[in-house]
Amino acid sequence: MRGRGPAARTGEIVESLEASLTFDDNRLASLVFGQYDQNVAHIERRLDVVATALGNHLVIKGSPEAAEKARKVFERLYARVRASGTALTLGDVDGAIQETTQQGTLFPAAEVSAEPDRPVFDQIATRRRGAVRARNPAQDAYIKLLRTRELVFAEGPAGTGKTWLAVGHAVSLLEQGHVERIILSRPAVEAGERLGFLPGDMRDKVDPYLRPIYDALYDFMEARHVDRGLQTGIIEIAPLAFMRGRTLTNAVVLLDEAQNTTSMQMKMFLTRLGENSRMIITGDPSQVDLPPGQRSGLVEAVNILDGVEGIGRVTFRDVDVVRHDLVRRIVTAYESAAHGEHDSDRNPNPRRRPSA
Questions:
Q1: What's the pLDDT score for residue 242?
Q2: Cα 193 to the chain's mean position, in Å?
Q3: Which element (helix H / strand E) includes 251?
Q4: Distance (Å, rounded) from C-alpha 156 to C-alpha 135?
């Protein structure tokens, strides 16, 4: 039903829309709404609507465009929990909002109305995790590049899913038999701290640096399969310094934190690619921990290799952060501060004219 909302300015009447939804299953509806209706509140904030949930019934009020988009988001989320039977995270909700927005720009309105839960973003599927769908256009482009390119560079801030999706893709290729092993590597550079010599064998020394990759592995694989893979060499931890002279065949090779490689290290690593192998290189150029004056191998490589056939590149922005809303705002604040510093470096006192 349509109504008239409050006037934004004197004499102006803003049209509003009220949409109602009734879901078949109360339990699934509660998964869509979230604990204490947190998903409903999140959608209200993101889409500027008012939504009231009661049992399996939902009423949405807002501008016609916003209310209609919210309705499609809830329908998409219901289709997702009906297929998986599991609870949603706020990241899943953000993904549904992004996917609904993208769907509206890619398909005619009639098709969107007929298939509200039509998949738009690509996905990665593993045995343990099931289907994991991209949550924004950047992640969608990333997954498509992982499928179609032998070498992919992924740059961007923390929390955008660069490493997590790369590990998921590697696990899916291993499970499907397209490759025989997964090789994980990263430069052993401390983030502003001196850790000294670490005890133990090679794996013990490298493990602290590869913890984010291990976390992703346990997300996509059963713990016993990860442990067995590490014991048998199907999953290999290869410190970057020990990669020289090797040819990596029938493998997915992941280099994480690549912004901390030197030019020589990056060139050496790139030339390890062998027959039937895929290489994924991830990093954040804004978090280089190399000594002052030393250029990042990642920054240099993406410039040199720009346009080379068979190489894909995706750049994530602060708006693509999916870890937590607060992380997105933190990244945005730091980027704004960095741009401000650069501006002030160029012209410390913009009001004063330079002397002749």
A1: 81
A2: 27
A3: strand 251-255
A4: 15
Give the C-alpha distances (Å, rounded to integers) separating 96 from 37, 42, 309: 16, 12, 33
Q: What is the pTM of this model?
A: 0.70
Q: Which residue, among 233, 283, 224, has the nearest Cα to 258 in the 3D structure?
A: 283
The owner of tokens 């650069």 is 342
Question: Cβ of 353: how many Cβ atoms within 10 Å?
Answer: 7
The predicted structure's pLDDT at residue 7: 42
Nearest 5°: phi and psi at 17?
-130, 140
User: For residues 166 and 45, what is the distance between their CA atoms, to the nearest angstrom?
Assistant: 31
Residue with tokens 């950047």: 138
DSSP 57-120: EEEEEE-HHHHHHHHHHHHHHHHHHHHH-SPPPHHHHHHHHHHHHHHHHHS-HHHHHH-TT---
Q: How many helices (H) and strands (E) does the chain have?
A: 13, 12
pLDDT of residue 251: 96
Residue 235: closest CA among 243, 223, 244, 226: 226
Residue among 137, 177, 180, 185 nearest 161 (CA)? 137
Instruction: Scan for tokens 């290489």, then name that residue.
Output: 279
Q: The tokens of 264 are what?
A: 């020589």
Q: How far apart are the first and last CA of the chain?
A: 69
Taking Cα atoms as reference points, which of 160, 159, 182 lies closest to residue 172?
Answer: 182
Nearest to 40, CA basis, from 83, 85, 96: 96
pLDDT of residue 243: 87
pLDDT digits (tens, 9 = 90+) for 289-346: 888 888 999 999 999 999 899 999 999 998 888 766 677 678 778 877 876 765 555 4
**Residue ranges of the chain with pLDDT lower than 50?**
1-11, 13, 105-114, 116, 191-195, 346-356
Structure-token pair, residue 131: 């289907």
**At 89, phi and psi to the nearest 5?**
-100, 165
CA atoms within 13 A on the CB side of 97: 20
Residue 10 pLDDT? 45
